[in-house]
What does this fold into?
Amino acid sequence: MDDKPAEPARPALTPAEVSLATAVQEVERHVATGGWDGPVRVFALVATARALATEPGLERQLPPAVVAAAGQDPTHLTSIEQEDLPPAESLEELLAVLSWPDTVDGAAVVVERVVLPPEAEDAMPAEPDEAMAYLMAHPDRQDVRLAVGVLRSGHAWCAVRTRAADDDAAVAGGPDVVPGLVEAVRATLA
It folds into this structure.
């Protein structure tokens, strides 16, 4: 018999949360088709049904399955990749200058990072160039792709893919996997 306490059950996701999770997973899979070592990618998330109602001709541009899904689910989201992002030295700087019109229901960001186990981070040098060399040479480093989406309602979803397990079936997800990035993306919607 196992003496570990049972983890509390997560409440079921609302339809809006399911739509957000689906949109974030689709964005991450889309970015994954381009391989690794890519730039930061930013997406607007819009309610598909509302976009179809306000944009004549959009129905001809979307796949029939998306149009059908929007007809059945008013929370269905369509992602629109943002091109010509403003120049920025860091992801934080980029997110600080982004803002969205009211017609955008949410935003998603996809970024790659290198992570270390906590015990390895404790030994990282303070000097930036030395820290980068340490990070890139560390045998326990993991390359990860983070996709984070947030709705104006506050709901969030994160998807995480590791280079070591680069398979759609191995992408992990949850609402609070990358809390700092969730908050940064949420701030772009304020």
